[in-house]
Amino acid sequence: MTTTALTHLTQLVTNDPSLGEGPLGLIQDAAVVIDGDRIAWVGPSSKTPATDNAVDAGGRSALPGFVDSHSHLVFGGDRTQEFNARMSGRAYEAGGIRTTVAATRAATDEQLSANVAHYLAEALRQGTTTFETKSGYGLTVEDEARALRIAGEHTDEVTYLGAHIVSPDYADDPAGYVDLVTGPMLDACAPHARWIDVFCEKGAFDGDQARAILTAGKRRGLLPRIHANQLSYGPGVQLGVELDAASADHCTHLTDADVDALANSATVATLLPGAEFSTRATWPDARRLLDAGATVALSTDCNPGSSFTSSMPFCIALAVRDMRMTPDEAVWAATAGGARALRRDDVGRIAPGARADLTLLDAPSHVHLAYRPGVPLVSGVWRKGVRVA
Ligand SMILES: [Zn+2]
């Protein structure tokens, strides 16, 4: 196998406190050696071992590739008009997720797959090397299974979200729709997914329905995660913790008991500031979660309705500016935090044995991700040891 060294990194974020300073395991004037698809060595640039190739990264810094643990990329159409109406202060009626469901059902497999590839390539150029994505815009047995098959062509982190909203076909029979999601739809979807998710919210699925859905998924070997407490207070977070969900996502409206439950569990609180930004909603209180000891991840929630960004650097900047995270906390949450939210230990860190996923910044430190918002600082991306951007 070929070895490659990246040398003279002004600063390297390893996310391994045994390798460097602080929780980010920072190393100044660092080097990284990649062997095949793995990290082989990390340390001071002056001690770099001999390698087949070398890249002089002088003046630039590096961090683990971003781990985006929450996106909805299998969709057709877009919702420009809805966004424009919302931002123009006009009431927007009807539509929402249903608009995307209709467009997704009408799209061909090739169109949906090309769309996923397009947005994943966009994310990759911005430093994201691991991405989760969900179904949830098909809402029939065939369309949900199709979405998961297509997602699986592009990523290993595939989530069955038949319980995104009650299908419009079951508007008068939500219980019938839960039976479908936990029965024939689950049978068709389980072979194509690693995770099961549910939108636990007023107007979507209540606590009892969400429990039935996640429990049925667990019985089929799927791992639970949950859209929880986004638009209102509710049972989602507590249910996620009770069912050992890898992650409770959104966490915008939390009681003290919700915060305590997260802090005393292995369930990650995944915050999605692109959604609050794009809907002018109240920010989740990251500071409160961190101070209580909860594990926090950041993710894009990339979807055509409520958060149409694929940019983890943008989410980091929002988290620092508006959710009172420190730059170090936000960078950890977008890398190691995302890995925890996917129960992965091979990504989200730069240490010997980890997957060689690395983002190079045209900036002297990771702090610039928040300090220079909107600036395309990512100047190189390695995924599984291969330079892809
Ligand atoms: Zn979502």
How would you describe this structure to a colleague?
Helix content is 34%, strand content 22%. By secondary structure, it is of the alpha/beta class. It has 2 domains: 3-65 and 349-387, Urease, subunit C, domain 1 (Roll); 66-342, TIM Barrel (Alpha-Beta Barrel). α9 (256-263) packs across α11 (286-292) and α12 (312-322) packs across α13. The protein is globular. The two termini are 21 Å apart. It binds zinc ion (ZN).
What attributes characterize this protein structure?
389 residues; Urease, subunit C, domain 1; TIM Barrel; 17 strands; nine-stranded parallel beta sheet; binds zinc ion; 2 domains; globular; alpha/beta; four-stranded mixed beta sheet
Helix and strand arrangement:
Blueprint: E1 3-12, E2 27-35, E3 38-44, E4 53-56, E5 61-64, E6 66-68, H1 80-87, H2 97-106, H3 109-125, E7 128-134, H4 141-152, E8 157-163, H5 174-182, H6 184-189, E9 195-200, H7 207-219, E10 223-224, E11 226-228, H8 236-242, E12 247-250, H9 256-263, E13 268-271, H10 273-279, H11 286-292, E14 296-298, H12 312-322, H13 327-341, E15 358-361, H14 368-371, E16 378-383, E17 386-387
Parallel strand pairs: 1-4, 6-7, 7-8, 8-9, 9-10, 9-11, 11-12, 12-13, 13-14
Antiparallel strand pairs: 1-2, 2-3, 5-15, 15-16, 16-17
The structure holds zinc ion (ZN).
Binding site for N-formimidoyl-L-glutamate: 137, 303, 305
Pfam families: Amidohydro_1
Pathway: Amino-acid degradation; L-histidine degradation into L-glutamate; N-formimidoyl-L-glutamate from L-histidine: step 3/3
